[in-house]
């Protein structure tokens, strides 16, 4: 009955939002004016160049520049002008050009809709050569090399590669979120969840391109590379509204650390056989958090990076092995059976889907690595997000294909896959355990560093040197102790924490705030100068679609977790 309630309420809300937006757009277009007012009407203004500025085409620009310094144009009610012969001839030529061009415009309403999608004028572009592609990058990265023969130091261009940047994006996406993905998509079915993954990929890729656009424009305006997400929130939204972004940033990081510590403790407990030790509850989680904190505290960042690279390589090998062995026992016929498809549950899967596709915190780094080259950045983001998404679909197919659809709502599919391998395939069981543990550790490392950077920004602390060492212990305590305490409150908090992080943290940080910031930057009243034109096409349409879809998800998930649907069912449907 609760599901029926949601099926009634959510489409009603969505239909209302769509209807209001269509009415608003049509009202903005002013249909009466579009159909009644002649498009060739001349606007009365002090000079020809200003009067016809809105109606000029590239050919008319040349004519207008010729008349730019001519005398003032005066027009009466009949649209007659009092110009001398030469100026009148030029002005008439301009009018004829406009009238000829307007005869070809047979869909004024569609043109009005196109205009309302929003455009960025060429005059706002700071560096036209960059926009045209004549100069592909904004700056050049240098690498200094000392010759062993002469001892002289030379500077060399150290450009980043698209492959390297795409690998960084892909490596960031492949994290512990993939462990919860089958549990989220199992009640939905493989086919609807695949479609949902496609929608999620589209939105999260567009969001990454919007963040890249913000980074490029900020780089062109300030001339300083290295702006992070929190800096962009403050620059674009101001101190007051940027606090929403900061709150979502820290909330997401802590939600994920809660999940990672809880599941990491469970994995450590299974690995060490702690169940027979008669230890107090919470010891495995505390041990896992303590080991991770001690390792990251003592090891230099260079060592952590090398160890993390080894873990990522081992994780990739385990993933390939899982797909190869799991595909041999998967029931793919059951996977696509119409009886096992439940699209009415799709909305519940989106928080975990969005969480699994997160990579956005490294987009400013990608922009800096590729020196602001817009084409390379676009290829790196699209390519770097496509490969992990295909991997997730394959992972989903193997996991769901190896389970009985009748137990999808009661058992974790990953745990079921691991348990089922015990009857005849110990290798698969070991690979699943290895993949799970490595995914947790590699993801935890990145989010720990993200929290450390965030708190050093908040407290205005140095990021290295004696000043940082002085505050290093309190910072690590601030990072690890709160999520450890929360992970001890519920043994099943792993999925719950990821679900909350995806529904509220990811949706706010990467699907609500970026389109709002880009909207303000492109179409704000201040008309601020820009480095690049939109990197996501169709103007305002994708921007509005992103934040409204994410807003609907936030409202729906919030209502469900607060019990609004249960209350509605009790009050009106029982």
Automatic annotation (TrEMBL):
Listed A to Z, the keywords are:
Cell inner membrane, Cell membrane, Membrane, Transmembrane, Transmembrane helix, Transport
Primary location class:
membrane
Locate the transmembrane regions by residue number: 6-27, 162-181, 201-220, 241-262, 282-299, 311-329, 349-368, 380-400, 427-452, 473-489, 501-519
How does this chain sit within the bilayer?
Multi-pass membrane protein
Any one Gene Ontology BP term: amino acid transmembrane transport
Any one Pfam family here would be Trp_Tyr_perm
The cellular location(s) given in this protein's UniProt record come to: Cell inner membrane
Asked if Ribonucleoprotein is a keyword of the record, the answer is no
GO CC entries: plasma membrane
Can you say what this protein is called? Answer: Amino acid permease
């Amino acid at each position: 009955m609760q599901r029926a309630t949601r099926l009634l309420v959510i489409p009603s809300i969505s239909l209302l939002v769509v209807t209001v937006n269509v009415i608003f757009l049509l009202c903005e277009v002013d249909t009466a004016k579009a159909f009644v007012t002649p498009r060739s009407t001349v606007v009365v203004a002090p000079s020809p160049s200003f009067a016809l500025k809105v109606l000029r085409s590239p050919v008319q620009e040349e004519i207008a520049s010729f008349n730019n310094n001519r005398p003032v144009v005066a027009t009466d009610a009949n649209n007659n002008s009092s110009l001398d012969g030469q100026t009148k001839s030029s002005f008439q030529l301009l009018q004829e050009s406009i009238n000829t061009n307007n005869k070809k415009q047979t869909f004024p309403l569609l043109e009005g809709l196109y205009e309302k999608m929003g455009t960025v004028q060429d005059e706002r572009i700071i560096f036209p050569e960059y926009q045209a592609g004549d100069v592909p990058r904004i700056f050049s990265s240098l690498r200094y090399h000392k010759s062993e023969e002469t001892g002289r130091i030379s500077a060399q261009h150290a450009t980043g590669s698209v492959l390297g940047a795409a690998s960084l994006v892909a490596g960031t996406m492949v994290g512990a979120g993939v462990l919860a993905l089958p549990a989220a998509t199992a009640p939905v079915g493989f086919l609807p969840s695949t479609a949902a993954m496609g929608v999620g990929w589209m939105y999260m890729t567009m969001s990454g391109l919007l963040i890249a656009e913000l980074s490029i424009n900020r780089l062109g305006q300030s001339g300083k590379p290295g702006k992070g997400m929190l800096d962009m929130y403050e620059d674009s939204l101001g101190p007051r509204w940027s606090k929403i972004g900061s709150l979502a940033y820290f909330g997401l990081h802590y939600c994920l650390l809660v999940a990672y510590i809880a599941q990491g403790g469970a994995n450590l407990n299974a690995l060490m056989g702690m169940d027979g030790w008669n230890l107090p509850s919470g010891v495995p989680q505390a041990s896992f958090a303590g080991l991770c904190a001690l390792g990251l505290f003592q090891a230099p960042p260079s060592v952590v990076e090398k160890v993390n690279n080894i873990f990522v390589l081992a994780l990739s090998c385990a993933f390939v092995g899982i797909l190869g062995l799991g595909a041999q026992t998967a029931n793919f016929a059951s996977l696509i059976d119409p009886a096992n498809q439940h699209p009415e549950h799709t909305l519940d899967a989106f928080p975990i889907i969005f969480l699994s596709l997160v990579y956005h915190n490294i987009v400013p780094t990608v922009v800096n690595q590729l020196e602001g080259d817009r084409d390379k950045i676009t290829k790196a983001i699209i390519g770097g997000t496509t490969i992990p998404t295909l991997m997730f679909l394959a992972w989903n197919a193997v996991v769901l294909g190896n389970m009985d659809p009748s137990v999808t709502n009661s058992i974790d599919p990953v745990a079921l896959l691991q348990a089922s391998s015990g009857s005849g395939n110990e290798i698969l069981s070991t690979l699943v355990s290895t993949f799970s543990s490595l995914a947790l550790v590699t993801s935890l490392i990145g989010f720990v560093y993200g929290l450390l950077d965030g708190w050093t920004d908040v407290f205005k602390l140095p990021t290295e040197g004696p000043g940082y060492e002085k505050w290093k212990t309190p910072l690590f305590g601030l990072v690890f102790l709160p999520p450890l305490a929360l992970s001890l409150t519920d043994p099943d908090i792993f999925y719950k924490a990821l679900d909350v992080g995806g529904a509220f943290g990811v949706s706010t940080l990467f699907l609500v705030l970026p389109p709002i910031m880009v909207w303000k930057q492109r179409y704000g009243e201040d008309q601020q100068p820009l480095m690049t034109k939109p990197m996501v096409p169709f103007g305002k349409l994708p921007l509005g679609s992103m934040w409204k879809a994410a807003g609907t998800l936030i409202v729906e998930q919030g209502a469900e977790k607060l019990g609004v649907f249960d209350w509605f069912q009790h009050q009106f449907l029982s």
